[in-house]
Amino acid sequence: MAQKTLTVAIMDAPYESANSTTAFRIIASALKKGIHVNVFAYEGAVSLAIKDQAPHANPVKGTTVEEEDHPTTKNFVASLLELGKSNPLLTWVNCGLCVDERGAGNSVEGVKRGGPGDFLKMAMDSTNTLVIPTR
Amino acid sequence: MARYVFIESRDPFESRDTQFVSDMALALKRLGHEVVIFLAQNGVLAARQNARRSHLSLLAKAGVSVLADDFSLRERGVAGEELSAGVRESGIDALVDLLIQKETKAIWH
Q: Which of A34, A65, A81, B87 is the one with CA 20 to 30 A from A72?
């Protein structure tokens, strides 16, 4: 059976939209099925992988950082890259211009820099492409 | 014949343009295509039996496959037995299986 590849384009910034969670779930599911995945992160989505994100305590509930165990999108991205480190392979490309605009260059290991041309190539070489736009 | 997979993430009571997805799904079905609507996130709120003026039953009667994401249902406290007739509880793995088939066009809304 030919190797299948799914390309996903995402645009939502972290901590704003349920789209990010659904995108992570789709990527994880595909990788667990042995499907190669390409991600093209555009606009605010380039911030999903910023290494400087830090979990926080919750003063409303009175919980510490450790008790709160606040999930960060950078950890989700890092976990997905670990899941897709070889076969199946996860290729995560951040839009370079979007990164520069946001000063979001300090990404977790494994995130590449690219542009819309990379997205076009990914889409043309994939079994299918899913674009998850912002609202 | 192609397969169209619409991923409806919007609550119809908040976003009137969900009607556009239903209309297009019906039109494609009438043209002989296989059509799936996968409800995710707030899109699952339309799948409740008590949701007034939901058009999902009409879609199901027309032969459109209507699936509701189990994760999104659980997050919103909607149990499987509360779903409208014609809506089936499904999951993200099933969605990926659909997406990875050839000749499948995926449209997120």
A: A34
Domain with A15 in it: 5-132
Q: For A70-97, what is each residue's pLDDT tens digit?
A: 999 999 999 999 999 999 999 999 999 9
Residues of B in contact with A130 (CB under 8 A): 7, 99, 106, 108
Structurally, chain A folds into a number of domains equal to 1
Inter-chain CB proximity B41 and A18 less than 8 Å: yes
CA angle (A55 as vertex; A53, A56 as ends), nearest 5: 125
A129: nearest CA partner in chain B? B106
* CATH number, domain containing residue A118: 3.40.1260.10
Do the chains contact at B96 and A131, CB–CB below 8 Å?
A: no
Task: Pick B3-108's CATH classification: 3.30.1330.20, 3.40.800.20, 3.40.1260.10, 3.40.50.720.
Answer: 3.40.1260.10
Residue A85 structure tokens:
């480190």
List the domain boundaries for chain B.
Answer: 3-108
A128: nearest CB among B7, B10, B104 = B104
Residues 6+ apart with CB under 8 A from B68: B38, B39, B44, B47, B78, B83, B87, B88, B89, B90
pLDDT in tens, B25-69: 999 999 999 999 999 999 999 999 988 777 888 899 999 999 999
